[in-house]
Amino acid sequence: MNNEIKNPSRFYKPVSMASCLSLLILTTGNVCARSLDPGETETVTPGSAPEAWYIPPAAVLNLNGADALEIEVGRGTLNAQSATTAQIDAFSGATVNLTDSTVVNTTTNAALSLLDSRATITTSSLNSQGYALTLARDLRPVSIGSSATITNSTLTGELGGGAVTSFSSLNLIGSRLEGTGILANGLELAGGHANVSAASQIVGSIHGVEFQEDSMFAPTELTAQSHLTLDNSSVQGRTGAAISVDFATPAGQAVLIDVLNGSSLIGGNGHLLEVVDGAAARLQVDNSKLAGDIDVAAGGSASVQLRNSANLVGNLINVDSVTVDSKSLLTGNVQGTGAGVIALDQGAVFQGAVSGVSDMSVNRGAQWNMVGSNALTSLNMDAGSVRFGSSEAFNRLDVARLSGNGQFLMDTDLATGQTDFLNVTESATGSHQLLVAATGSEPVTGAPVMIGNIAAGDAVFTLQNGQVDVGAYAYKLMREGEGLFLQPDKETPSTGTQSALAIAGTAPTVIYAEMTTLNTRLGDRRMTGNQPTAQSFDALDADGKKSSYGLWMRTYGNSYNVKNSYGDGYKQNQTGVSIGVDAPLPIGDGQWLIGAFGGYSKTDLNLKRGSAGSIDSVYLGSYLTWFDQQTGYYVDTVAKINRFNNDVKVSMSDGTQTKADFDNIGVSASVEVGKHIVFNRGYFIEPSVQVGAAIVEGKDYALDNGLEITNDETRSLLGNVGLAVGREIVLDDGSKLQPRLRAAVTHEFINNNRISANGSDFKNDLSSTNVALTGGLNYAPAAGNWQIYAEVGTSRGTTVDQEIGGNLGVSFNF
């Protein structure tokens, strides 16, 4: 009978003398077992009487659907398929393979114990009143360790789910490991490795996983570093922590814990990790969401790393260092050891308060959202940001040394003078931006407000976007001595006020752009081969056609750059369509034409810092034109009414959004007088003078951030002097083609339109002199009753530039 020392069922805690005697009995061998010869192979099939077995070196026992009692494997191999056995002890390089099998132990020994051996367990069940599984090394001078790969199996033990010592490794795949007794842990690691994956579960009545000292026999002997890896799996301690480090770790051998890919830790006492005095742990959370505290006892140490969108909600107590990067989120307070370090990087967010933390770095898009007031020895910024907290409370950040380049997001109540405050007590270097929350409410006093104190250093502080929007005006940053102040600037309207000025000033350009398409139509009507007829066509076509009814449609688009009185500007883009009908009036000594039209246009405004506005315009109008064929004189008159739906979305200086919308009415009219002069070969010129007037209803409204706008009526008086030159060409097939070019000078006379923002008046002066150049082309077929026409142009002015404008139309005469 082999008398080698077998695997004990517990290794990790001090034991009584009675326990040692029991251990001695366990290691004497099973004298009642059936023993194979070395190298022998035995196969047991269903129906055989259960026996206890001893498998010596090179021997193989196959259990195929059979039952067995206790089995000892000494450098042999056990293969169990659909079998049921009592406890299995394997040692000295033995191999155990279990598939669809059950191991039940009714004693306090392990269901399966491995000593310098290996096991593969698939879709099986291990149950014991002791441990379900132990993996150990022999304590002789050369330690080998044990290994087990467990797939889709269930392991339960009264004293504990499993235990793994130095140089041993456990691979748990899609399996459940549980310690069910009142004092049981799910897994105990004493220098061993555990890789837990594929939705595996480790559950303990006290702790889910407990890291322990390696050997009760030789505590000073060399031990390995414990390492737990969870991959899409969970660890739960029902009454204790999810993970506990329960011994003084050797120097340089902090236990390693990796929580990966959707894994979870659940502590019945609210603790994810507990570290005792003298112990050290490194916890890395990668792409997983955890909730619970990390509690390190005085004299212990721990470092915490969150990576790849990890999320941890809980307090970190007495930790040495915290690293949060790769868009991870830490929500909770961090209590350091006095020399604690926090590093935020690559879009990470930390929301909480700090104490006992000496140094912090906030880099590459990371952000610290402070809770309460905080103090640091050193703060280094590299494209990171610090938010002082919510707008409901004002906080203070005390920093001895500030360096790098970063952004501070602050709130200030200019009505009360309360504010977040940055206090640098020793020195500040680098370049830093302050983003102070904007508001539409008006300050009570308009006095400067101190938001920071910089004791020394060459740091540069600026405001994001150069200002803070406060009510109707902007505030600028001023540095005086050591102080940083917000100073009101009565020369600079706030972004909300600028947007209101833009909306109010846009309506006249919308009106005139809609009317321009109609004026062009009236010219087209004179220049067709139908009466009323332009002299140019009369010279070419003396067929004496009678006046006719007309139906027409025109689409148009315009793009403007607009400057205002406050050095700001915006871009304006308009598109629309007009439809009209007209008929001749055979009265007087000339030719009269009366018509009606309607249409729709949409104008989009691209305003400062991403603000935007839009005006939807619906309009109806009528026109009357007179043309004397003998002299070439003409008079065109137009009257129009518009309904505007105005919408504005404002991006404030701090990036917050506010909006408003309102409706109003506009009326307009224009009169154009000119003469059509024809030369030989179809050439012509057409000088003209035009006067246009418009008035748009004033309207009061408020942005949803509290900025109140009062619009006076917007008025416009426009004069235009122009000259068109062109030629009417009769093609070989009798159709007509008319290219033309027009130059004009336009002047807006009204310069005193006004709006009011929170009771402060602003002049909305859009008076401008513009020079415009337009080219057009008409085509009328010889035998048809229709024509098409197109036009494109541009203009430059002191206030308004038209980058480009164009229209395309078609008309029918019947």
UniProtKB/TrEMBL annotation:
Pfam assignment, any one: Pertactin
GO cellular component, one term: outer membrane
Keyword Signal: yes
Record's keyword annotation contains Metal-binding: no
Signal peptide: 1-33
Boundaries of every Autotransporter domain copy: 544-814
SMART domains: Autotransporter (SM00869)
Protein name: Outer membrane autotransporter barrel domain-containing protein
Organism: Pseudomonas prosekii
